[in-house]
């Protein structure tokens, strides 16, 4: 999980105006008359939660909640002490396994979400873990839930990529045109541009993909993972558009600034001949 993906949101299980969507008690039927009583939870919900907790992945004893971002711990204070500590440990384990075992990371993230469904960061972590595990539909649902709780642009690039994963590249482009896209910081805007360029390639629009990356202003003087990823995406779009000489130049530049082996640019050079 990148650092920008770990910032907490406030989680209250409410809509953006602070209303609880489950605030109703008994209601009259449309025609009036006898009131019908109903529970805010569907039948069997409690039993399902108990069963899920019995199959939660184990947490090693040495896991320390203080390893979690203090801002995230602050968000979890709305929970009971025991529950908040369990949620924190599951979140740490989700982050620990995200790269090496995304399926196990997702199990931990789901366990955290089940205990903290009204905390935005728990929904966000579940969404990110589902995304890394290729569970696009679940990822999109959880990230949308996190945004409803906390507001703000949220994980817009990840959400757009989930739309691509679901075969809905046009939906990804719609997210790129949203008002929330204008609120993104530089790194998040770069990630969104990379995803949108990919959506253009999905739709067999390579020249539009090139223009999409150009709007993000790739700069040869920039360094770091975001600059490297943008340079690679630019080279990839240029290659798809048949502009091999330019693509070679940007793949070579990507190799020069790829300090963390973030891309396979060296392998892609052969395609530019």
Walk me through what this model shows:
This protein has two domains: 1-14 and 48-151, Serine Threonine Protein Phosphatase 5, Tetratricopeptide repeat (Alpha Horseshoe); 152-273, Alpha Horseshoe (Serine Threonine Protein Phosphatase 5, Tetratricopeptide repeat). The protein is 56% helix and 1% strand. The protein has 13 helices and two strands. It has a two-stranded antiparallel sheet. Helix 10 runs antiparallel to helix 11 and helix 11 packs antiparallel against helix 12 (244-257). Residues 1-39 have low confidence and may be disordered.
Descriptors for this entry?
273 residues; mainly alpha; Serine Threonine Protein Phosphatase 5, Tetratricopeptide repeat; disordered N terminus
In a nutshell, what does this entry contain?
This protein has 13 helices and 2 strands; from the N terminus they run ββααααααααααααα. The chain is mostly helical and 273 residues long. It folds into 2 domains: 1-14 and 48-151, Serine Threonine Protein Phosphatase 5, Tetratricopeptide repeat (Alpha Horseshoe), CATH 1.25.40; 152-273, Alpha Horseshoe (Serine Threonine Protein Phosphatase 5, Tetratricopeptide repeat), CATH 1.25.40.
């Amino acid at each position: 999980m990148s650092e920008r993906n770990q910032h907490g949101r406030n989680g209250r299980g409410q809509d953006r105006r602070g209303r609880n969507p489950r605030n109703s008690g008994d209601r009259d039927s449309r025609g009036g008359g006898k009131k019908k009583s109903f529970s805010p939870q569907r039948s069997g919900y409690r039993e399902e939660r108990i069963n899920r907790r019995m199959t939660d992945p184990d947490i090693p004893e040495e896991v320390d909640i203080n390893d979690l971002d203090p801002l995230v711990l602050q968000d979890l204070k709305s929970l009971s002490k025991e529950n908040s500590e369990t949620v924190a440990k599951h979140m740490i384990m989700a982050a620990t396994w995200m790269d090496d075992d995304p399926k196990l990371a997702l199990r931990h993230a789901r366990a955290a979400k089940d205990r903290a469904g009204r905390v935005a960061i728990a929904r966000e972590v579940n969404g990110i873990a589902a995304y890394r595990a290729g569970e696009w539909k679940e990822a999109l649902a959880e990230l949308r839930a996190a945004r409803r709780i906390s507001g703000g642009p949220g994980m817009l690039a990840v959400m757009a990529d989930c739309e691509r994963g679901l075969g809905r590249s046009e939906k990804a482009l719609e997210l790129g045109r949203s008002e929330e896209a204008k609120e993104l910081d530089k790194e998040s805007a770069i990630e969104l541009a990379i995803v949108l360029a990919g959506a253009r390639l999905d739709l067999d629009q390579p020249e539009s993909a090139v223009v999409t990356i150009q709007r993000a202003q790739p700069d040869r003087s920039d360094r770091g993972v975001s600059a490297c990823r943008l340079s690679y995406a630019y080279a990839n779009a240029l290659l798809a558009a048949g502009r091999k000489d330019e693509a070679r130049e940007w793949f070579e530049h990507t190799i020069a600034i790829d300090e963390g082996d973030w891309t396979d640019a060296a392998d892609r050079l052969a395609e530019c001949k």
